[in-house]
Amino acid sequence: MAYLLVMGGLALSVCFTLGWGLVRATRWLAGRLPGAGRTPSRRPPRRAPSRTKAPGRPKAAPRTRARKAAPAKVPPTPWRLTRWLARRRSPLPLGLLVLLLYAGSRLAEYGMTFRPLAAPGEFHGLVTTLGWAAAALLTLAGMNLLALWRCHRSGGDDRP
């Protein structure tokens, strides 16, 4: 049972990695095709409504106590590290994959405790390493989502 879980997790990770690489390569090639970057807009451009002056009473004199408009507050541009992290898309799927591998190997480790033979020490080390790797990748994925939010909120040109 443990062999099937571990080898199934390994096969799943290899298939996921190859599939992810294939999808990214396909998207890259599709973006390089002529005409792929140009998408027609769905809406026609709007025209400003024309206003005609109604003949009526004359305009009032402008107020002298008018409050000056405050300049719009522009948020500062994000740091270079934040922009770099926002462009990366892989930490979340990779973190979820490692989390699934960790859960499967923990289940196999739990099942091995009821066997008469003890599990090898390297297996326990592998499970611990997978747990720490999952925690690190999911933390990095959370930072990636925060960086995406920060770059989107600032409205800079470096949005992904």
Description of the molecule:
Residues 33-75 are annotated as: Disordered. Keywords: Membrane, Transmembrane, Transmembrane helix. With 160 residues, this protein is mostly helical. The protein is built from four helices and no strands. It has helices spanning 2-32, 80-87, 91-112, 121-154. Helix 1 (2-32) runs antiparallel to helix 3 and helix 2 crosses helix 4 (121-154). The two termini are 44 Å apart.
Number of helices: 4
Radius of gyration: 29 Å
Q: Can you summarize the main beta sheet?
A: none
Strand and helix order: HHHH
Q: Helical proportion?
A: 55-70%
- The total strand number stands at 0
Distance between the termini: 44 Å
Structural class: mainly alpha
Strand content: under 5%
Backbone shape: elongated
Weakly predicted, low-confidence segments: none
Round the mean pLDDT to the nearest integer and report it: 78
Summary?
The protein is mostly helical and 160 residues long. It contains 4 helices and no strands. The protein has helices at 2-32, 80-87, 91-112, 121-154.
Q: What descriptive keywords fit this protein?
A:
single chain; 160 residues; mainly alpha; 4 helices; 59% helix; elongated
Please specify the SSE layout and strand pairing.
Layout: H1 2-32, H2 80-87, H3 91-112, H4 121-154
